[in-house]
Amino acid sequence: MMPPDSRAGAWAQLRTGAARILRSSTFRLALLYVLLLSVSVAILLGYIYWSTAGYMDRQTTATIQAEIRGLAEQYRRRGLGGLTALITERVARDPVGASVYLLVDSGLERVVGNLDRWPPESPDADGWIGFRLREWGPARTEEHEARAQVFALRGGLRLLVGRDVRDLEATRALILDALTWGLAITAALALLGGWLMSAGLVRRLESINQTSREIMAGDLSRRIPLSGSGDDFDQLAASLNAMLDRIEQLMASVRQVSDNIAHDLRTPLTRLRNKLELLSAELSASGKAIDLAEETIGDAEEMLSTFNALLRIARIESGSRRAAFAEVDLAPLVQDVVELYEPLAAERGQQLIYSSAGPGRVFGDRDLLFQALANLVDNAIKYTPAGGEIQILVDAEPGGGARVEVADDGPGIPAELRDQVFRRFFRADDSRSTPGSGLGLSLVQAVVQLHRASIELSDHQPGLRVILRLGAGQSVDEPVRKLPA
Amino acid sequence: MRILLVEDDRQMADYLHKALAESGAVVDQAADGREGLLLAASGEYDVLILDRMLPGLDGLGIVRTLRASGNQTPVLFLSALGEVDDRVEGLRAGGDDYLIKPFAFSELQARVEALLRRGSPDAPETRLRVADLEMDLLKREVNRAGTQILLQPREFRLLECLMRHAGQVVTRTMLLEQVWDYHFDPQTNVIDVHISRLRGKIDKDFDAPLLQTVRGAGYMLRAA
């Protein structure tokens, strides 16, 4: 049996899935299609109804008119006597038949016929009348629909000739029933088909969406899985993948250029620095020149550290260090970071507050994780004003792994800049007056990506909260997710 | 002090040769692995500086052969390979320290001096002493001129490292590696703040400062 929370989770997942299908354009298109189809089917069925029911109507009318013609012929030849005799004869021949006759005098009293009384309904211009007819026979309880034509004869007599249309009505109701159900079933089937079709399309689109989101989250190596059917979705996915390959190549070549510059300039720069050092040793006596030489050494150091950081990022991004991953406990590691930076914070009147809410077992590279966390704490110290407070928390993650939060009460980073801070050489202030190379967070991101971890910047109100989430298992090399079958 | 430098990059070798000679060492030079091994095997050197990638026989091979024949001369590897596992591999093969190219000469010099000191194995020390500063490694106590100085555990390790290398330059990177045991590049010079704290405890109330800053290189503990 599933545990209750996973069942609730599955239910929630199902609900969001259904909501996604309902929102999808495919499903909306399908709904429109269902509507159009239903209208067409309704028109078609309406025509069928009209032609069948109308045919039966016309048949009845024709029968009544034939009867009337017979009676009129008799009346013309033999007068009233002949007419009553014929009606009597017809009624006697078939007392409970479908034909209805009634001849009344001016006081509406029955002269002859198989109808009790003259119907109260008034006839239309052609003399047609529709009325309720009580069942013939001993029971005489049921009432049926009947149709008849009425005529005025000489001497205030009135004649009604008609038919019980019970069967006609029943048939008509049957046809109407069948047509209504037909329409309902058509709409239901079309709706179901639309749902299934949308679900299929939504699933395919969702896999593309999912991949896009992962790529936007920074993992440019992700590709959209193909279903292998070679359909238009596969073609779209293949085109997108080819586009991603191209983008990755371009980005790699841009990066390659900056890495090459860093690499090629590093050696002569180091030589320069070392020669300056030799020079300053020669100069040991004169104060002013040695100060200048040492300042120059400092400048060279700064450039070297920028180049080194660039190359370090490039090396981390190459992913080769993943082979050396091992289990790391984040709690002592973070404590070491805090311990290392505590004097620096204290010097600026800031407080570093460490707390641990759960075990921090993760899988990764100890030195790189230390580097990343040190950079985060370093940044927090740098951007928090004197007297500020920096909180560092280690906690276990519900799904395994752990997270580290570094929250300060400094000015924070505006939401629209949060994606940009990871770019190489990015500075929040355009003047580039703050110290540092602008590579600290790029390095953090390289470490995060190497660990397939996630980093999130949010508002600490006031200040910045950085949340680093790391996995516990060796699942860092899992293959590209397969398309759900 | 005799140093053997095995480096195939002519320019680098000449520069190092010159710089080391100027700091008072006698330097022999070899440009390939076999020649380097032959010279090193003579056992006349105090320190070997080996490039890891060499024609003929690579640095790792030289060290393995030397160690297998009982030669314990301290070895400093130079390498363009900066990965942690390369470093670990080098140290496992019998190297004593590892420096990634390009490096500042002062860093190399500090490490070579540290190796020279390590090269003379004494009986395990229980007390360290620099001028009137004393450290008892068993009781984990520090005294200066008879006054006890209270140190945090990390400050104790920092001071211990500096005292073990008394009279030598210790670079910030060496301190990070030996006291904090992490290989990383701090964005800010966090070490400086730790040093100034330590200085506040061991030097502030005394006449002669012991903890010196060596500009452009690192720190040194010595009697003034």
Per-chain topology:
The complex is a heterodimer of chains A (485) and B (224).
Chain A: H1 4-23, H2 25-93, E1 99-104, E2 110-113, E3 128-134, E4 143-152, E5 158-164, H3 166-216, H4 232-282, H5 287-317, E6 326-329, H6 330-347, E7 351-356, E8 361-364, H7 366-383, E9 389-396, E10 402-408, H8 440-450, E11 454-459, E12 464-470
Parallel strand pairs in A: 7-9
Antiparallel strand pairs in A: 1-2, 1-5, 3-4, 4-5, 6-8, 9-10, 10-12, 11-12
Helix pairs in contact in A: 1-3, 2-3, 4-5, 5-8, 6-7, 7-8
Chain B: E1 2-6, H1 10-22, E2 26-30, H2 33-41, E3 47-51, H3 59-68, E4 75-79, H4 84-92, E5 97-100, H5 105-118, E6 127-130, E7 133-136, E8 141-144, E9 147-149, H6 153-164, E10 170-171, H7 172-180, H8 190-202, E11 211-214, E12 218-221
Parallel strand pairs in B: 1-2, 1-3, 3-4, 4-5
Antiparallel strand pairs in B: 6-7, 7-8, 8-9, 10-12, 11-12
Helix pairs in contact in B: 2-3, 6-7
By CATH reckoning, the class of the largest domain in chain B would read Alpha Beta
- Indicate the percent of residues in helices of chain B: 25-40%
Tell me which protein chains meet in the greatest interface and how many residues each side has. A-B, 48 and 29 residues
Order of helices and strands of chain A: HHEEEEEHHHEHEEHEEHEE
Which H/E pattern describes the elements of chain B?
Answer: EHEHEHEHEHEEEEHEHHEE
> What's the story with the biggest beta sheet of chain A?
5 strands, antiparallel
Fourth CATH level, the homologous superfamily of one domain in chain A = Histidine kinase-like ATPase, C-terminal domain
Q: Helices and strands of chain A: which structural class?
A: alpha+beta
Relative helix content of chain A? 55-70%
Q: What is the approximate shape of chain A?
A: rod-shaped
Q: Which fold name corresponds to the CATH topology of the largest domain in chain B?
A: Rossmann fold
Q: Please, how many domains of chain B? A: 2
Provide the β-strand percentage band of chain A.
Answer: 15-25%
Which spans of chain A have pLDDT < 50 for at least 5 consecutive residues?
475-485
Compute the gyration radius of chain A: what is it?
A: 46 Å
Number of helical regions of chain A: 8
Organism (chain B): Thiorhodococcus mannitoliphagus
GO molecular function (chain B): phosphorelay response regulator activity; transcription cis-regulatory region binding
InterPro entries (chain B): CheY-like_superfamily, OmpR/PhoB-type_DNA-bd, Sig_transdc_resp-reg_receiver, WalR-like, WH-like_DNA-bd_sf
Keywords (chain B): DNA-binding, Phosphoprotein, Transcription, Transcription regulation, Two-component regulatory system
